[in-house]
TrEMBL record:
<keyword id="KW-0560">Oxidoreductase</keyword>
<keyword id="KW-0520">NAD</keyword>
<dbReference type="InterPro" id="IPR024084">
    <property type="entry name" value="IsoPropMal-DH-like_dom"/>
</dbReference>
<feature type="domain" description="Isopropylmalate dehydrogenase-like">
    <location>
        <begin position="5"/>
        <end position="340"/>
    </location>
</feature>
<keyword id="KW-0464">Manganese</keyword>
<dbReference type="Pfam" id="PF00180">
    <property type="entry name" value="Iso_dh"/>
</dbReference>
<keyword id="KW-0479">Metal-binding</keyword>
<dbReference type="InterPro" id="IPR050501">
    <property type="entry name" value="ICDH/IPMDH"/>
</dbReference>
<protein>
    <submittedName>
        <fullName>Isocitrate/isopropylmalate family dehydrogenase</fullName>
    </submittedName>
</protein>
Length: 354
């Protein structure tokens, strides 16, 4: 049986350091479960925003477009080979969102707090984060759009994902957080019509209304929240802190591409950025990258239990005080990864009392 194939795309800043951690952890998890992974790395190292800052506007625009074109084609090539997963370190957001627009991406994250749970589906395919810039002296004009087709596609995906998340009844409520008051009623009309057609109650809310209700009432038992990127990008870290018990430096998420040409390709990423100020210092926190490797190993490589195994190892390291400086520890990126890898083999066959 052929080895599972996984894509790897590396950006500037701490990208190369984290890519090394990802490869080591994925391969070790595979060895512990009798699975060999073939990793296909993009030949291009993509710019971070910091790596572009010293360039002129014209050169930034050129490099941004080149990165977007290259990464889009890399994703299309992976999907054409039947590859189901790619891990990407942080790259320049402008390049990234051009790809997300073209490939119709959504970000998916699940947050839990006591008995309540939130499935956040973040619309990355349309809105202000997407679009093109036009420069005139002293001004930048950004043109973007919302479309009925993409809105309906995202809602359909979110509902299907919610039914998978809660197979014994689906979501208890479906909310959408968008600045719909700025769109002449169009988004409201599309959502209302789709809600009636599907027979599913969907509440379209202003972001401040969602914020107020979360502050006042917390999470519902099963809440599906479909959110425009203008709100969700800012609020993701807040939601993680308030309801997920996590910091962005430790968290990974998945992006699902809805375009038919790349359907089935899931991109895993760290929630944190490129951390260029830490590049080459061995100080970047590898936990989010380690978690991404475990998710890919389990969900796309047949390594059953890999996520739970890695979570138990991370908890064990935390109790021993093993961590990078951002977590109050004294260990390097490599030191944390080495400690995790040392725990993988015993974890492959759980030991009583671990």
């Amino acid at each position: 049986m052929p080895n599972p194939v996984v894509g790897l795309a590396v950006g500037g800043g701490t990208g190369p350091e984290l890519a090394e951690v990802f490869e080591r952890v994925l391969q070790r998890l595979g060895e512990a479960h009798g699975v060999g992974f073939d990793i296909v790395r993009s030949p291009r190292v993509y710019d971070s925003y910091v790596s572009l800052r010293s360039l002129g506007i014209g050169e930034i625009r050129r490099r941004t477009q080149e990165d977007a074109e290259h990464y889009e084609q890399f994703c299309r090539a992976l999907a054409g080979r039947g590859v189901a997963a790619v891990f990407r370190t942080a790259i320049n957001a402008q390049s990234l969102y051009l790809v997300r627009q073209r490939l119709r991406a959504v970000k998916v994250d699940v947050l839990t707090h006591q008995s309540a749970s939130l499935l956040l589906v973040r619309d990355e395919a349309q809105g202000f984060y997407t679009g093109e810039n036009q420069h005139t002296p002293g001004a930048v004009t950004r043109t973007m759009e919302f479309s009925r087709e993409i809105t309906e596609e995202i809602i359909a995906f979110a509902l299907e994902r919610a039914r998978r998340q809660w197979p014994d009844g689906g979501p208890g409520e479906v909310l959408m957080a968008y600045k719909f008051h700025l769109l002449d009623g169009a988004l409201d009309e599309w959502v209302t019509a789709l809600s009636r057609r599907l027979g599913v109650a969907i509440r379209l809310c202003q972001p401040d209304t969602v914020n107020r209700n979360l502050v006042e009432h917390g999470l519902g038992e099963r809440t599906l929240l479909i959110a425009g990127n203008e709100w969700a990008d800012i609020m993701h870290v807040v939601l993680l802190d308030r309801f997920g018990g996590e910091r962005q430096e430790n968290r990974c998420t998945e992006n699902v591409h809805l375009h038919p040409d790349v359907a089935g390709l899931v991109e895993y990423q760290t929630v944190h950025g490129s951390a260029d100020d830490l590049a080459g210092r061995g100080a970047v926190n590898p936990v989010a990258t380690i978690r991404a490797a475990a998710a890919i190993a389990e969900h796309h490589g047949g390594c059953a239990g890999a996520v739970r195994q890695v979570e138990r190892a991370i908890d064990a390291l935390r109790r021993r005080g093993v961590g990078t400086p951002d977590l109050g520890g004294r260990h390097t990126t490599t030191g944390v990864a080495d400690a995790l890898l040392a725990a993988v083999d015993p974890l492959a066959t759980p030991v009583a009392g671990w």
